[in-house]
Design a protein that fits this description.
It is globular, with a radius of gyration of 19 Å. A hairpin with a 7-residue loop joins β2 and β3. Helices cover 68% and strands 8% of the residues. The protein is mainly alpha-helical and 157 residues long. The protein has seven helices and three strands, in the order ααβααββααα. It has a three-stranded antiparallel β-sheet with strand order 1-3-2. The longest helix has 24 residues. It has a domain of 100 residues: Winged helix-like DNA-binding domain superfamily/Winged helix DNA-binding domain (Arc Repressor Mutant, subunit A, Orthogonal Bundle).
């Protein structure tokens, strides 16, 4: 077994963490310049691209914890950007959707943010982008397979 100081993956973990921090900083600054917080943008972008969703689906599709989600939804609803309707399938849950104002905001901010990010990726070929995406997905899957949540489910039927 390799000692921790000799682990070949440690420099990669540092680079991955620094890359994520740099992306978050670059992306969040632009999102804030659009008048939104990153969680608000995440919800607007998710609903704008996928339409109506339950709160549970929205939590699964965004990077927002369930504890934070309710407050963000409340603030967006107070701004008139989204509405919550009782689920026709499950009376205990809600369906979240963008209002006309929320859809108009999505149509403004989503393309603007994509355009802001695009120059960063232009130096990569299609093959390089595909390879990065494939490797990131592989790494994410490996973490997902080995997450404590998955092992708890296996141990508790």
């Amino acid at each position: 077994m390799t000692s921790m100081s000799g682990s070949r993956f440690l420099p990669m973990i540092r680079e991955l963490a620094q890359c994520f921090q740099a992306f978050e900083s670059y992306s969040a600054a632009h999102i804030r310049s659009l008048g939104l917080t990153p969680p608000q943008f995440d919800i607007i972008a998710t609903l704008g691209n996928q339409r109506d969703m339950s709160c549970k689906e929205l939590a699964e599709q965004t990077l927002i914890t369930k504890g934070t989600l309710t407050g963000v939804l409340d603030r967006l609803a107070a701004k008139g950007l989204l509405s919550r309707l009782p689920s026709p399938v499950d009376g205990r849950s809600w369906i979240v959707r963008l209002t006309a104002a929320g859809q108009a905001l999505f149509e403004d901010v989503f393309p603007a943010h994509v355009a802001h990010l695009q120059p960063i990726f232009e130096s990569y070929s299609d093959a390089e982008l595909d390879a990065l995406r494939t490797q990131f997905a592989r790494l994410r899957h490996a973490f997902g397979e080995n997450s404590p949540d998955n092992h708890q489910e296996e141990n508790h039927p």
